[in-house]
Fold this protein.
Amino acid sequence: MSYTRGKEILVTGGGGFLGSHVVDSLKKHGTTEENIHVPRTSQGVDLRKLEDCKRVVEGMDCIIHLAANVGGIGKNQRLPGTLFYDNLLMGVHMMEEARVVGVDKFVAVGTVCAYPKHTQVPFREDELWGGYPEETNAPYGLAKKMLLVQAQAYRKQYGFNAIYLLPVNLYGPGDSFDPEDSHVIPALIRKFHEARVGNLPRVEVWGTGKATREFLYVKDAADGIVLALERYDKPDPVNLGSSFEVSIRELAELISKIVGYKGNIAFDRTKPDGQPRRKLDTSRAEKEFGFKSTTPFEDGLAATIEWYERELLPKAG
């Protein structure tokens, strides 16, 4: 019988990009819709406020904390203080109130941005404290990293069952394509699509194109989080990734091909690359709770582009 079956599960951020897929994965693993609870800002819930966190944790058996104020390099550069403050407060309040009311298990979802800027590839969880994060996203990354400190401290002092997961960059259907806040894959999909429709001669991409990233399809990430909820109960942080590394240049060329854009790609070297390389060691997740990503990268990209063209373009028109 599934660990989650019959339990009351709170998914903060459950209406968002990753959260909606986690809700779907919970249902796939046997949790009924009535047992899944999603606090929403549209209903007046603000998880930066202690009293709202107190209210939403009442009666819950498990909490998956996904709620975050997050964006790409541009947003991290514009709003470092906001990203630090919002994410730190949400994490601290949610875990503390969960402990106070006796929640059985707390899944804290961090970020690959918590890793030091210069980490030996592939990133191993034991290297997490080896240096300062990449400067453009350090305030966000450090705020989310405090969830790990809190989880380990609470486990040691209170015996509180909190675990910490480190997903790599996510992509897939439902992502944000807002040009101000989007991450690299949706930003490039939008750029190349608009260039194709507008018959533009070239598309500009931030940075040198040399930086590398690892991307995890959002449905795979959601399944990994639910598997960890069901099977993992240790203090050590765990990476969630695909073990696939691609340069930004290669990524841009692949998206251009799938979208059908025939023009040139130019790299704006005045813009930051961000962290030089990102690729995770995912062996701990496979060993501890049997997680391994299953979606080939090109298939995931094609599905994301198809979703964008089907769901967002008609609304834009």
About this structure: The radius of gyration is 19 Å. The mean pLDDT is 94. The first helix runs from residue 17 to 28. The chain has ten helices and eleven strands.
